[in-house]
Structures
1.
Amino acid sequence: MKYPIIDLRSDTVTKPTPEMLTAMMEAEVGDDVYKEDPTVNKLEHYAAELFDMDEALYFPTGSMANQAAIKLHTQPAEQLICDKWAHVYNYEGGGVSFNSGVSCKLVDGNRGMITAEQVQENINPPDFYHSPLTTLVCLENTTNKGGGACYDFEEIKRIRKVCDENGLGLHLDGARLMNAIAAKKEDPNAYGKIFDTLTVCLSKGLGAPMGTVLIGKKELMQNAMRVRKVLGGGMRQVGFMAAAGLFGLKNHVNRMGEDHHRATELAKKLEEQSYVLKVEPTETNIVIFYLQQSHRENEFLQFFEERGVRMSAMGQGKLRMVTHYDYTGDMHARVLELLENFE
Ligand SMILES: *Cc1c(COP(=O)(O)O)cnc(C)c1O
């Protein structure tokens, strides 16, 4: 028997819903390089308003948006501070050095999150010219490799204070920021007040086929179009895609609780299994767990693959499942059952 594929590798695997497709088909478009695409303009306006920030700019990918932000904040030979698991450091192809000529000071944080004290300790003394000049702090919320962990907002405020005292910029890689906001019932405005720039992926839990918005303060954003152009990210009638992003931002945040609930149930089921060593705390839509015998990783993945269930290996014995809107109640019931069947 052939099973339907249940894809838990990432929340990027979703396909547009019929309603989203309609919004895409009906989008009014123009040449966005001339800033004449009304739908892209609408999305950018909506995103900036949502976070109560000055400006937003649509990018094809989250990596490009983060890389542009880093470029806007820094000069070559400077250094940014981030967690050792940060996406900007690990999963953007070395772009920090390639695009900006900047190095990363890696902090040994907790599930991808760092503290104000750690930021303070990792700032190079500005008058010590042997060391790179520290100019930027990059946070991630939720954390990807950290299993969808969410920052305590009070900690973010403390980090902002350290940045202010030391003249550092503060960027948020908010690929899954809407998951954090939904899970902790936070106000997007609060993020807009604290960060100089932030990115939000439209192609993860929000379900659009592509796109990320970079949102920020005017002083920084005035050069953003130029940097996007340099990186090859100027696009034409891309309003068809922006319409999907706008639709997701407006309609899919409220349903994220469902993804989070299912992730919690997966985590609970895993905890009950004797073959599981440890499950990371599950706060949003990412479940990270370790097998009792790490050498059985391939066997485990294959057991599920043969039954149509896909998940990802993250190295160091880590396995990951990510819930999303194409993961239905029926699929969930089946995965819960299969988790009991492996031994
Ligand atoms: C997915 C992701 C990004 C952006 O990735 P792209 O594939 O380039 O869109 C950035 N940061 C984090 C934490 C992510 O999970």
2.
Amino acid sequence: MSKERHLQAKQAWAEKQKARGVVARTEASRDRLPPGQKLTSGFPVLDLGVQPEIPLPEWRLKIDGLVEKPATLSWEAFHALPQVEDVSDFHCVTTWSKFDCRWAGVPFTTLYELVQPKPGARFVYFTSFDGYSTNVALEKCLDDDVLVATRFEGGPIPKEHGGPARVIIPKLYAWKGAKFVSGITFLAEDKLGFWEVRGYSNTGDPWTEDRYA
Ligand SMILES: Nc1nc2c(c(=O)[nH]1)N[C@H]1C(S)=C(S)[C@@H](COP(=O)(O)O)O[C@H]1N2
Ligand SMILES: [Mo]
């Protein structure tokens, strides 16, 4: 079932790319701003008080757990994978939203194809170089706009925003997107991440104000 979902996501992305040439993304903000959110033009920084310095030659992304082909990708190996660009909105649970963030990187679905999760895999646990973690249902990671991003607005992601690489899951509150990402683990059973253990919602849907558990 998730196989079909990830193919659907690839197709949706292709169609969106086609559409982007002709359709400007100018929906009225009231249709784009989830309930209880305020639009910001800046880009606040939220972290655990640590912005780890990771030299690119030492950077690794480890993908493991319930998969046929675990992988540990160097910066070079990661960039040998097909890269995409996607523009999405960003919603922080602390009530600010930022529209039209232009991220580029590797689609989650590409990493999914690379490691080939086993049929029992239903959850994803992300870990980071600063000790952060977060958990997401696998189904939610297979949308076409979910990326492991290495670029923001045409340049490298600034360290304070999670570079060298961060996860972007636009349809969920932003705490579900691990900055400074270092690991992606596929699991059969759910495992709560840093904020999920501390009372944030397990699902984190901005449109239903699904903020706290
Ligand atoms: N590694 C790591 N990822 C993280 C966090 C963090 O503290 N550490 N904070 C999360 C939260 S609560 C939000 S709102 C976004 C903030 O991203 P920004 O600092 O680029 O705005 O990153 C998320 N990912
Ligand atoms: Mo947040």
